[in-house]
Structure prediction request, 173 residues.
Amino acid sequence: MVRGVRARRLAKYKGKVTAYDSPIYIADAALYLMKHQPDLGIKNPYALDDKQFTAAVDLLKGQRANVGEYWSDYLKEISAFETGDSVIGTTWQVIVNSVDAKKTNVKAILPEEGATGWSDTWMISSKAKSPNCAYAWLNYIDSPKANAAATEYFGEAPNSQEACEFRERSRIL
Prediction:
């Protein structure tokens, strides 16, 4: 999200900017506007009135001139950073963790405005061919050790205090 001075700074990357292609990106724009246009009265980036929603969408439309690629496939995002097709933009921690450090130098920066998020969940289909196997997976990924490792890799928050403590102990060792 950029306006004014930031928009001019971003213009030097025209065509090399990447942005996440998902409706949730509107909440990112709203989060930016919460700090930079407090007169809009945004209190929750996920609950916007018509005026706030329009302002967030207009902000995203304004950055479009600099965006070279809107991504939804994180593997393509990794490739875009590794080839130099993208050099700045929105990303996930797993993308930063997956970029080949020998090919490119990439760094994740949390914006001063903060970040939005969501909660991923595991579910079993009512038509699962192997529900016992699915339950075994759920039990495994829910364990503190597995959950700590997976959430560390993906840049997510662990699902329990035990997983948080396991992750902290692992960092110390």
Observations:
- The longest strand covers residues 67-71.
- Helices lie at 4-11, 25-36, 50-63, 74-83, 93-98, 131-142, 144-154, 161-172.
